[in-house]
Amino acid sequence: MSLITVFGSINVDLVAGVDTIARPGETVLATGYATLCGGKGANQAVAAARVLPPGRVAMVGRVGRDGFGQLCIDNLNANGVLIDGVTVGREPTGCAFISVSADGENAITVASGANGALAAEAMPAAELAATTTLVLQMEVPFVSSHLVARRVRAAGGRVIWNLAPVPERLREAELRTLLEATSVLVVNEHEACTAAQRLGWAGGDFESAAAFLAAEGGVTCIVTAGPSGARAFHPDGTHQAAPAERIVPIDTTGAGDTFVGILAAGLDEGRGWREVLTRACRGASLACLGHGAQRGMPTAGQLS
Ligand code: RIB
Q1: Residue of minimum CA distance from atom 6 in ligand 1
Q2: 89-102 pLDDT, tens per residue?
Q3: Predicted pLDDT of residue 2
């Protein structure tokens, strides 16, 4: 049976609601705060698990031996994510400090903690397989993610890499090796342009950046564009698009992660590109209607 394995970050999100997000040097008073489960990796695992039958999504990550770590493990378990690959270390559990404004926008600072010590060896050998859909982001060490990606690709598995956030210091050579180990690259508009520039793109709009990445890297590049939906560009020059739902967002945190999780689930189920994009866009829109990264993530029934 196929398995989606998410190798990535697990955080607790400390989320403060504010009228406007503080600028540098400014202090603003929050209307309140909440302690929620997050981390791009864990969010993507939960999003995929919500739309699949039990036992189809596994998390490989690292938390601290502290209350936050246990909270994150319990949350993954409660959402039907397999947690055998989650290790507990001496470092503190990763923590994200998030401000969410009245219009649903956010600003996020991540203290990586235990995520920074996640090693490739944490990946179970049985999941280095042709039946694996591996999902990666950029919140755990790049060398670990890259090694796992290469091993899954060598075994004939699928690798979905969400290039978020794009590290300031990601060099051209690293990006090229990342693309070599990737089947499907997922970026937002800003990430598409930043990554394409690192590879010598001449400039233009975010769609031309995504098309450039697809051709240059020999990957399918999916670019998400918030209320404008998403587009998939393939290395042979073909492409598809899907719209987002028209909604009034409460909290956009985790919308991109919901997109990636539902995308991974759809590809693993063997759905076609257009259907996969449409479901992932709908899921990401619905996720914006709940507070926090995971509360608004839909079930399969809400996508049809
Ligand atoms: O993408 C949203 C996530 O980014 C949050 O849950 C936070 O933990 C950070 O990793």
Answers
A1: 38
A2: 999 999 999 999 98
A3: 87
- Active-site residue identified among 13, 251, 257, 268: 257
Give the Å distance between the CA of 139 and the centre of ligand 1: 9
User: 251 in ligand 1 pocket by Cβ < 6 Å?
Assistant: no
Confirm or reject: Cβ of 40 under 6 Å from ligand 1: yes
* Total domains present in the chain: 1
Per the listing, tokens 């939960």 go with 46
pLDDT at residue 104 in the model: 81
Q: 165 C-alpha vs ligand 1 centroid, how far in Å?
A: 10
Residue 16: inside a domain, yes or no? no
pTM of the model: 0.97
Reading the block at residue 181, the tokens are 């180990």
Residue 101 within any structural domain of the chain: no
In a domain, 294, yes or no: yes
Q: Which residues of the chain have pLDDT under 50?
A: none
- CATH number (domain holding residue 149): 3.40.1190.20
Strand-pairing partners, residue 58, are: 5, 82
C-alpha 237 – ligand 1 centre gap (Å): 32
Any domain includes 62: yes
CA 44 to chain centre: 5
What would the two tokens of residue 201 be? 């793109």
Determine how many CB atoms are found less than 10 A away from the CB of residue 15. 24
Determine the structural domain holding residue 200 and report its residue range: 3-10+39-93+114-303
CA of 37 to the centre of ligand 1 (A): 9
Q: Which tokens hold the place of 282?
A: 């709908």
**Ligand 1 near 108 CB (within 6 A):** yes
Sheet holding 32-38, edge to edge: 32-38, 11-17, 94-100, 106-111
In short, whether 139's Cβ falls inside 6 Å of ligand 1 is yes
Query: Is 257 annotated as catalytic?
Result: yes
Is 253 exposed, middle or buried, given 0-12, 13-18 or 19+ CB atoms closer than 10 A? buried
